[in-house]
Structure formats: C-alpha cells, structure tokens
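Journal club side-thread
Mid-discussion, someone asked how the predicted structure for our own chain would compare to the paper's figures. Pasting it here so we can look after the session.
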Amino acid sequence: MVLTLRLARPADMPEMKALMALAISQLMNDFLTPEQVEGSHETMGIDTQLIEDGTYFVVEEAGKIVGCGGWSRRGTLYGGDHSAGRDNRLLDPATEPARIRAMYTHPDHVRRGIGQMIIDAGEAAARAEGFKSAQMGATLAGEPLYRRCGYELIEVIEKHAKNGAVIPLKIMGKAL
C-alpha cells in the first residue's frame, strides 16, 4: 500500500485522538510499567495549535490515518492541549530550535517509514522558515527512531503523573 503525507485538518481530530490513545497504550508497554503508560496519557496528546499553525501532518494509507506528528515554531516542547506548562510564544529561528512534536504511529504500521516521513517534512519546513536546529521531548519508545534521524540526547527529565508514576522524557536535539 502507498503511504501519503498531508497537513492535518480539524476534521481529523477524532481519528488522530484514537490513534494516539492506541499508540500510547500499546507501543509504550515494552519501555514503561503499566502505571507509567497510564500516566503518559496526562502529558501526551494532540496540540490543536499545531493544526491551526499548519505544522501538523497525517500519514494515510488507503484513506485511513496510520500516523501523525509535526513540528512547531512555538515554545511548547511537548504535550497536548490538556498538558500544563504550555508556551505559545513564537520562537526566534535565529536563536532557538524548532520543535518536533506529537509523533504517533498506529501499532500495526510501525517500522514502515511513517515517523521518518513526518520528521523529514517537519525538518524541511522548519529549515524553510530559517530554523538552524530542532528539539523534541522524546519518549523511550520513540528514542531509537530519533537517534537514527540524527537527534542526540540533551537531558533526561521526569514527569510526575497523578497516579504517582514517574515517566522519563528525553530532550533531544540536532542541527538542521
């Protein structure tokens, strides 16, 4: 089957939310405890600002969304609309890194190049706007892909979920 990449639309929200929940619930199991996976839903999710900004993509196969993710010219590094600590200020491309954001792949479609398609598109768009580097808040499940794409570890932070779980998040970056 052929994979196609396009910008996400508000009408895609229900399908993307279902995909995200499935990806978090299934793809994190090899890296986190059940409590950490449950807690991950608090800090991960859709950021509708990315859709409004035209920086969020979906990958489709036969008309069905099998992946989504994007980049941002705004300060928020990770998290969805419901996450604390959002920063919607515009970044300065000359001095600040663009953000690679909210990457999710349907569990039945992993390791088919979907994440790479989204990262390539996001990096190209960020470069076109003058960004010299990019950063992300990577999950343990996503880290191998991001390393293959040239991202390097900057620091590890811990997110504390309401259920008491501590979820590691890796801040990674690369020059564009």
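Post-session note: The first strand starts at residue 3 and ends at 7.
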